[in-house]
Sequence to fold (277 residues):
Amino acid sequence: MTNGSGAAAILSAGIGAFVLAVVALAADNSAALKSMLTFYKPTGPLSGVTTTSILVWLVTWAILEWRWAKKSVALGRVSILAFTLLALSFLLTFPPIADLF
Amino acid sequence: MGFGALYLLACSGALVELYRLTCSSAPSQPSHGEARFLKIYLLTMTVLAWAAVLTGAYVVYPWYRAVPPPGTTDLALFPQRLLMSSPTTIGWHSLGMEWKEHVAWFAPISITMVAAVFIRYGQSLSNHRQLRAAVLGFATASFLAAGIAGFFGAMIDKAAPVQGGHAIQLTMGAEK
Fold:
């Protein structure tokens, strides 16, 4: 069995987490975006930030799975990229760092 | 909070098993029964993780961020405003809740990936060393994210318990 499916899942999870962090940061800095991302008023912009990120994650996963399912890819590089994105996501959601932007 | 606590408990078990499969001196191929058990275990964790963030965001968080009517002086039913009303507690919101509300979502994203990879590869995961290492790494990240969210959730609830407005009371002691 090739490693393409696993690589697609790993990279898309890193991308999904990173998109969540970036969209949350953007919404925090833009009143218009914050309003646009308020899908459910009692929850506020968090509803849009998470829904959008989850959709991006799942679509990315589907596309990568379609492209890589039957291939073997350079999993080492894919993993490094995915973990870098995940680490950046933790940092960008940490308020003292997010407030720098 | 219940789902999150169960998830954290389950996470420790999954990490031990994934570590055993990945890093033990002689990584062994799990038996058919072991692989089936781990698939069900990881699927259950995935359900718990999503239940924790969805109930947190759509049931508890609206109570937390409820806006008091103008002129309200008793902020006991408005946890966010209560925390923000004092310089000694504002950090629980500006650092704790601001981080928790986003970082918590990394847990279900990561553990969904872990479960999907394990279900897809099953016993043949033993043939993919890098894949096993990545799965273990994301499971650890998921545990870390859930731990951060759980810690701040518990501490914030101690400082400003979420009571749920007038219709739904989770704690009644103060009113007796």
